[in-house]
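Researcher: Let's do a round of design. I'm pasting the structure tokens now; please hold your answer until I've finished.
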């Protein structure tokens, strides 16, 4: 944790700031290991202040090091005016991607003497490069996902609802050691599988359905995110054609994944192949995203992304084709980028299974 703080302090100096206010609870956890739900931290080149409410008095003292702990009597932002490091003319960076408008207005009112500077993704850029322990946590979460799929795929039968399967995914992930769901499990079947980001419904599975299963697990706060597609009973030639293209798109994009690319360049590898096969109009989202304490982190892997792919990034790759007349297929795995390529952190078999 100390090294992470030092890196943030280096970036504060690089951006010519006097201090940085970190309000994202995910970023607060990354910097201090704090697992509560309400906290922020003020970081200066010389020291750090950790602000939380009275519910977390004991927990903050147990979890937080390398910071002066302040227990707020009312709201957290009001405590900032008591910190002597915030003086007239101070250049105070804040997380413009996370701070709510009402909190920003309160910040201006509380610190009228400060020069507030929106600072995007300072902590996120540091957090995008994982250490060995972080990667191992994602790998363990990925192993849980594999165990869950082994148990749940045989349960897919006509008459079972999407919500039934979603509940099984969540329950069995926790039984195998997941701390929580990183997001609500997605089970989308039949024509609903053509919804790129559908949610589980009361729809019953039917013979011939394509079924997209997208869920995750969490270990040590770090998420794995996996998607597999299953077909019930009968695999049509059109369904198989889509599945083969998606599988190949994942294979060629993972082979291309290496340091030095941008998110746009990696996305383009899969997107170009899917277009060449005649399905370009049916690939309707980015290829992937970074993964860690949050399900969606840097680097972004999409058509507009200039984010660099770096050694130590943990990313998802999730090509999909969604045809409203046929259904959808998405296959997703998680990877850590190494110096010369990648390691798959979710090695459960990818092929579309017929049940």
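Researcher: That's everything. Go ahead.
Model: Designed sequence:
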């Amino acid at each position: 944790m100390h090294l992470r703080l030092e890196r943030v302090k280096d970036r504060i100096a690089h951006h010519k700031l006097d201090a940085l206010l970190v309000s994202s609870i995910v970023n607060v956890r990354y910097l201090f290991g704090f697992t509560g739900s309400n906290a922020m931290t003020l970081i200066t080149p010389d020291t750090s202040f950790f602000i939380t409410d009275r519910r977390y008095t004991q927990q903050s003292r147990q979890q937080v090091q390398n910071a002066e702990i302040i227990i707020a009597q009312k709201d957290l932002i009001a405590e900032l005016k008591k910190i002597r490091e915030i003086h007239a003319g101070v250049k105070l960076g804040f997380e413009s991607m996370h701070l709510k408008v009402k909190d920003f207005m309160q910040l201006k009112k509380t610190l009228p003497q400060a020069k507030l500077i929106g600072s995007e993704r300072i902590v996120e850029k540091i957090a995008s490069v994982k250490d060995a322990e972080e990667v191992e946590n994602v790998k363990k979460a990925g192993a849980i996902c594999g165990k869950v799929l082994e148990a749940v795929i045989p349960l897919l039968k006509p008459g079972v609802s999407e919500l039934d399967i979603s509940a099984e995914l969540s329950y069995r992930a926790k039984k195998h050691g997941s701390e929580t769901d990183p997001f609500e499990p997605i089970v989308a079947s039949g024509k609903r599988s053509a919804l790129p980001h559908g949610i589980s419904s009361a729809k019953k599975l039917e013979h011939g359905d394509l079924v997209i299963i997208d869920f995750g697990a969490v270990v040590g706060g770090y998420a794995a995110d996996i998607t597999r597609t299953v077909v019930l009973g009968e695999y049509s030639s059109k369904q198989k054609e889509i599945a083969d293209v998606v599988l190949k798109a994942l294979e060629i994009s993972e082979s291309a994944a290496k340091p030095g690319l941008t998110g746009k360049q990696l996305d383009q590898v899969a997107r170009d192949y899917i277009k060449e096969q005649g399905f370009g109009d049916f690939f309707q989202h980015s290829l992937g995203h970074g993964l860690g304490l949050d399900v969606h982190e840097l680097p972004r892997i999409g058509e507009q992304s200039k984010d660099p792919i770096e050694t130590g990034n943990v990313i998802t790759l999730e090509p999909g084709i969604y045809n409203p007349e046929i259904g959808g297929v998405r296959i997703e795995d998680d990877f850590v980028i190494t110096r010369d390529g990648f390691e798959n952190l979710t090695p459960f078999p990818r092929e579309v299974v017929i049940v």
